[in-house]
From TrEMBL:
Domain of life according to the entry: Bacteria
The protein's name: Beta-galactosidase GanA
UniProt cross-references to Pfam families, sorted A to Z: GHL6
């Protein structure tokens, strides 16, 4: 703890305070905690977990300090005490950074009686009772409650307490509010009535997403300016979650959010562990230099909301460690200051200790990869919460395929697409980036002309940035195709046939065809350098069983590969291969995606791992070295938690390309603590890595 305290104290109460806030404890108090919880226990937990920053419940829905603001509800258990102030003092005594948490999403009856205009209204004109606790009311996030009342609370907390920031949870509202204020404001600014659907085809819905973005962006600015007027080093930190890049303008985030928080606290339902790290890659794709924390709950994150509970230690560790692997800073959150179940303390402490051990090396390096998935933020921002997951299915499927193939990769936001950003990678993948602007299309064309490669699938480039359908496929000239029929589906019992010998169709020995997609686009090849490694098998019935046979020979391009004069390569798969792989997990689809990427890469990957295991791989580099992080996800519960036990992976072989003019001076396993041998092998080195249980980091130093 001494090192992290010294490190934190060097930036205490400065504008750069957040740079040394690298391990977080969040304590979210229950109303009766002031008379039930033990502050000394929590101070000791800060030390035990090597936390150097803390987020503490302060006010909003309930104040845990003696607030003097009328209608700001103060915990009825507070008495003469100040639990928030006591925790702030204890944390500052450890030279920790301190952030106050506020939650403005609900109000009590007295505030509702005094200001009924603060209450959110549903589509039928009814004021909204809280869905989980009907004694209170849901607030309208776009009303005077957030723009007049909450600023007073922000001002009071900032002036009275020794804090670095205020963190707001559930501040963005809960869907469309139909109160009179929202109706009038929305109509005045957009000319539309408030939407009754969340369909991306509804102009009113698309207008509402933009209107909401503007209102909330102004709110961030207002709260931040209030704090800085009192304490210039402080910041307002809105809890945006992993979808912040689609909900808010990047310019606002860049100016007002010194670091970002990912509030995806664990797995829900069927979800792979790598979702934790994916969020980090996504944020990094838009803000490569911005610190990002991953909030992890100590309880299960299922829809049944067992918030005051404890999941298994291996599940907690897997989520936190995957974030660490992909460059996220760990943050754990505990609901309720009373601790009836202490089983979370040791696994959290172990994962935080692992982060602390890797931090001196990993923090000075930057993530690197030859392959990137384009994050289609322009497409996704048109979707609401009820459709966003399905809209991301293609990206999830491509992510899963690259993970299974052990191909290191990063992500790049389509909102940050520049020539310089594209040139960081040899291959850029568009899993289903439907909405692309003409300028983005030109950037991709120029990138390929310079020697870069693009793998695109399904409806990429079929719509404009404002979600209007294009008459022609925007990427068609680049990919060497012309669309002959728009997407049809869902269809059943579809197949694609292998057409000749090609690296993209390698590994399917014994098969003349593999299963196809459920949504298909028809294209024909055009231009020079075009090949079709797979063809569509024309539809045939799936019942009666006696009729299940093809009537016609394969025809129509199902995969189009093109070699360009400048050395770049493109691949187009005109069907929903990513989404159907994510749904069905057919191994052939994963192989096809990986084959397409490897062919587009046109060479051996710079970092390869030879082992039969499920490893999430991250690569970081600096001028004099490389760090390869290997997170072991080989587990029967990898796709559906909670994990019961971490199963060790055996020894594996790591093959790394050595930069021209350099050689390996030293290789160390940072977690295992031992020196490793690097055997030269034709411009590469071969390293035998001992087996490990959770995570290993292999550090190569160049000379």
């Amino acid at each position: 703890m001494l090192h992290s305290r010294i490190q934190a104290s060097s930036t205490l109460r400065t504008k750069d305070w957040y740079r040394s806030a690298t391990r977080w404890t969040q304590l979210t108090l229950a109303e009766d905690d002031p008379v039930r919880f033990d502050p000394a226990f929590w101070i000791e937990t800060f030390k035990r977990t090597q936390s150097n920053a803390v987020c503490l419940s302060a006010g909003g829905y309930i104040a845990y300090y003696p607030s003097e603001i009328p209608l700001h509800y103060v915990s009825r258990f507070i008495g003469d005490g100040d639990p928030f102030g006591a925790l702030v003092e204890g944390a500052r005594g450890l030279d920790m950074h301190v952030m106050a948490r506020v939650d403005p999403h609900a109000i009590h009856q007295d505030a509702a009686d005094a200001h009924p205009e603060w209450i959110a209204v549903d589509a039928k004109g009814r004021p909204r009772r809280h869905w989980a606790y009907p004694d209170v009311w849901v607030t309208c996030a776009y009303s005077g409650y957030n723009h007049v009342f909450m600023p007073k609370i922000v001002q009071e907390i900032t002036a009275r307490y020794d804090i670095d920031a205020i963190f707001a949870n559930r501040w963005q509202g809960h869907g469309v509010c139909y109160c009179d204020s929202c109706r009038l404001s929305f109509r005045k600014e957009t000319g539309h009535e408030l939407p009754l659907t969340t369909s991306v085809e509804d102009p009113a819905w698309l207008a509402w997403t933009g209107w909401r973005r503007g209102v909330l962006s102004r709110l961030v600015v207002e709260w931040d300016e209030i704090m800085k007027a009192i304490k210039p080093h402080t910041s307002f930190i809105p809890n945006m979650g992993s979808v912040s890049l689609t909900e808010f303008d990047l310019g606002m985030i860049e100016r007002y959010c010194p670091f970002l928080c990912i509030d995806d606290q664990g797995r829900r339902g069927t979800e792979p562990v790598w979702m934790a790290g994916r969020n980090g890659k996504r944020i990094r794709g838009a803000f490569p230099e911005r610190p990002t924390v991953l909030i992890t709950s100590i309880g299960p994150e299922e829809e049944h909301r067992w918030k005051d509970s404890v999941t298994t230690g291996p599940e907690m560790r897997a989520w936190i460690d995957n974030g660490t692997t992909q460059g996220l800073l760990p943050w754990f959150t505990k609901f309720n200051g009373v601790v009836p179940d202490t089983r979370w303390i040791e696994p959290v402490s172990q994962s935080f200790a692992l982060h602390a051990a890797l931090e001196p090396v990993a923090s000075r390096m930057r993530p690197t990869a030859e392959i990137a998935i384009l994050d289609p933020a322009t497409t996704l921002r048109h979707h609401g919460l009820d459709t966003r997951k399905s809209a991301e299915a293609d990206d999830f499927g491509v992510y899963m395929a690259l993970f299974e193939a052990r191909l290191p990769f990063e992500m790049i936001s389509d909102q940050r697409m520049t020539a310089a950003e594209l040139d960081r990678f040899r291959v850029v993948i568009l899993a289903n980036a439907a909405c692309l602007g003409d300028d983005q299309v030109r950037l991709l064309e120029d990138y390929v002309a310079r020697g870069g490669s693009v793998v695109a699938a399904f409806e990429s480039g079929t719509r404009t940035p404002d979600n209007q359908p294009r008459a022609e496929l925007a990427l068609g000239p680049l990919l060497g195709v012309r669309r002959t029929q728009t997407t049809r589906g869902p269809v059943k019992n579809t197949y694609v046939a292998i057409n000749g010998s090609h690296l993209i169709s390698a590994g399917f020995e014994g098969a003349a065809r593999i299963i196809g997609g459920t949504h298909l686009m028809a294209v024909e090849p055009v231009g020079e350098g075009v090949e079709t490694p797979f063809l569509y098998v024309p539809d045939f019935p799936d019942l009666p069983m006696e009729e299940v046979y093809p009537r016609e020979a394969p025809r129509g391009a199902a995969v189009v590969a093109r070699t360009h004069p400048g050395g770049g390569r493109t691949v187009f798969i005109p069907w929903n291969i990513g989404a159907i792989f994510w749904e069905v997990l057919a191994a052939d689809h994963g192989r096809l995606i990986a084959n397409a990427v490897r062919w587009a890469l046109g060479k051996r990957c710079d970092v390869e791992v030879e082992v039969e295991a499920m490893l999430d791989i991250a690569v970081r580099e600096e001028a004099d070295g490389l760090l390869v992080l290997l997170h072991n996800l080989t587990n029967p519960m990898m796709m559906k938690g909670p994990i019961r036990h971490a199963y060790p992976v055996g020894p594996q072989t790591l093959s790394v390309a050595v930069p021209e003019g350099r050689h390996v001076a030293e290789v160390r396993a940072l977690v295992g603590g031992q020196a490793l041998e690097a055997v030269p092998e034709g411009g590469r080195v071969r390293i035998e890595v001992p087996g490990f249980r959770e995570l290993e980091a292999v550090h190569l130093t160049w000379a």
